[in-house]
Amino acid sequence: MFELRLVEGGLLKKILESLKDLVNDANFDCSATGFSLQAMDSSHVALVSFLLRAEGFDHYRCDRNLMMGINVANMAKMLKCASNDDIVTIKADDGTDTVTFMFESPSQDKIADFEMKLMDIDSEHLGIPETEYEAIVRMPSAEYARICRDLSAIGDTLVISVTKEGVRFSTRGDIGTANIVCRQNASLDKPEDATVIEMEKSVTQTFALRYMNSFAKATTLSNQVTISLSSELPVVVEYKIAEVGYLRFYLAPKIEEEEGMNTEMVTGPKTVEKRAKIKEEPIIIEESEFVEERKPKTETDGEESKPKIEINGEVDGTMAIKPESEANGEAEAEVIMDVE
CA nearest 254: which of 236, 234, 283, 240? Predict the structure, then answer.
């Protein structure tokens, strides 16, 4: 038997609204510690993880670990039927293929319940290792959302650079470039308006701006956002959910092709984005793809190829290889040697 009761029902609505455009189907994990989810987007570039601890609910009961496969968009539709101040209760019995949502008004003069079918979703739970990041930026979540929105009008990639001067957000597009620098500041009157930078060394990484914009939809959950960066590791964009949980987004960086690299061996005729992976840890976002272009050994100009035979540094003759003959059903090859 699993049952949770959340007085602030609007909190669940905000979480699902933040996820529905990123994750399609996901397994919600119910355990004694709390209600959680871990899922990747369809392209396996972004990972989302959230946790609501058991002590954060008005009532929480979980007799045994339970995994509920749910379509995130459908669950968001269910929760839209609840008012922001409604009390939300979620129930699921052992062995059943449905989950029940119940919404109660604060005065309890209105109670509504909805039942939704569960899904069988084959997904692997990834172990996310604890990592010491080279740079951590804490800033107002509304400011981060505004920066992503403004830069998305200029380009489609976001470059984040953390230095002693501050954190720089920049992009480049067909119409020009844009740079926004946020310097460290401490606001004693309003701590949620402060920008705090903890840095061991300078870090610069590039990300797909559409994903960073999607993460910003969780702005309503917290006044502050934490951005953790390390070279060649996915960025972590974290929103604290009051004091009872968190919502974290992981995004693999884009590694652009460097000038002077052998494009034939690394990227082929077209530029291929190389997605980073976490070093020897189970949370591999996506392995790099390499395309090898092989050129023919001999270039022809409409005539039969005639490689030259070189003897003692001088060309003493030419050799022509006649194509295979299929006249008698057997492959024949004729070698003609002309030696002067």
Answer: 234
CB neighbourhood size of 2 (10 A): 21
Residue 12 CA, distance from chain mean position: 22
Q: Which position has the token pair 């090898």? A: 292
Bridge partners, 317 (sequence order): 309, 339
| CA gap 159, 145 in Å, rounded | 15
Distance CA 50, CA 172 (A): 32
**Residue ranges, the chain, pLDDT below 70:** 124-125, 188, 256-340
Token couple for 299: 């270039």
Q: Which amino acid is at 157?
A: T
User: 3-class DSSP state for residue 13?
Assistant: helix
Q: Which two tokens stand for residue 24?
A: 């399609």
Q: Which two tokens stand for residue 166?
A: 């501050």
Condensed to tens digits (0 to 9), the pLDDT of residues 207-238 reads 999 999 999 999 999 999 999 999 989 999 99
Q: DSSP letter string over 39-90?
A: EE-TTSSEEEEEEEEGGGSSEEEESS-EEEEEEHHHHHHHHHTS-TT-EEEE
**By 3-state DSSP, what share of the chain in percent is helix, strand and coil, each rounded to 5?**
15, 40, 45
Element (H, E) at 30: strand 25-30
What pLDDT, on a 0 to 100 scale, did the predictor assign at position 267?
A: 28
DSSP string, 95-120: T-SEEEEEEE-TTSS-EEEEEEE-B-
Write down the pTM of the prediction.
Answer: 0.74
pLDDT in tens, 117-145: 999 888 766 777 788 999 999 999 999 99
Q: Which residues pair with 51 in a beta bridge?
A: 36, 246
Q: In the 8-state DSSP scheme, what is residue 176? A: E
d(CA 155, CA 86): 41
**Residues β-bridged to residue 28:** 37, 68
